[in-house]
Amino acid sequence: MAEKRENIGIVTLPEYSHTDPEFVVSGLCELGNSFFDQIGVPHRHDFYTIYWIKKGKLLHTIDAVTHEVKKNTLFFVAPGQVHNLQATEKIDGYMIAFRDAFMCLKDQTQVSGINSGLFFNNQFSSVIHINDEQEKDIDAIVRLMMKELTLREPEYEMALHGLLRYFLVLASRIKGENVAISPEQHAVHNSSIFLKFKNLIEEKYQELKTVSDYAGLLHIKPVLLNEISKQLSGITAGEHIRNRVILEAQRYLYNTDLTAKEIAYKLGFDDPHYFSRFFKKYTNQSPSEFKEASRTSVGPSA
């Protein structure tokens, strides 16, 4: 009998790093066993990852959604997401990886929203296909990054920062998202509150489940937190909290052999039956129905 999977492994950036512990750019083949040992194994990263699959075919599962991928596809995976690469033929390409401190992607008062469009969105990820002309620009940026990392000349970190910023801007344009800041988003105070709220969810979603809980930590009224959330994201604070809990439940259902009861306790529910009702109310599937359906489904082709 196969061993029961109860946890989702975490890969740290130093496992991939040969030179700089904060920033990695490498061909996939050059990553060696540190990359290929993870093929077929659901895991999380504690860093931001961009994959560029140049050749080959694979299935890439990100948080229970499986994408069928062909050549020239970009993937953007945020820290904490559960993903699994399954190659169906020999693949080649690049990986760009960096810690949050390198770019401060969560600081949306500094960066104009391109980041929320690539790493933080309703789908919790981005999968982008690039054409031959766009490939030339992406290739030029990646080669310059690798050159800076190899030569490490004065202020190379500043150069890498600029190249990464340009890469993200270019990817945002390709994705076709509007990266302009709306007038409301210029309200730095509200943006700061919303950012703190989202970070608090990441820290406390297992123990805190209500808007009032988070509003109290932010020292504002629940109605104001809902207004700010609606203004900056289009959905209420309560929906953000529920979505995060449901996402984690889906991750465990898809990637482990834990029962719904075990997952309920992991996510801070005292009553497993209430958890099952909660999950079905917001997904229209019971936990067991989701597990069965997700393992036989494939997302849209890239």
The CATH homology group name of the largest domain: Regulatory protein AraC
**Spans where pLDDT lies below 50 across 5 or more residues:** 107-114, 177-187
Question: Biggest sheet: strands, sense, closure?
Answer: 5 strands, mixed
Give the averaged pLDDT, no decimals.
83
Q: Can you write the helix and strand succession as a string? A: EEHHEEEEEEEHHEHHHHHHHHH
- Number of distinct beta strands: 10
Quickly give the structural class.
alpha+beta
Head-to-tail CA distance between termini? 36 Å
What's the CATH architecture of the largest domain? Sandwich
Tell me the domain tally.
2
**Count of DSSP helices?**
13
Strand content: 15-25%
Form type: globular
- What assembly state would you assign to the polypeptide chains in this entry? single chain
Rg computed from alpha carbons, rounded to a whole number of angstroms: 20 Å
Question: Tell me, what is the CATH class of the largest domain?
Answer: Mainly Beta
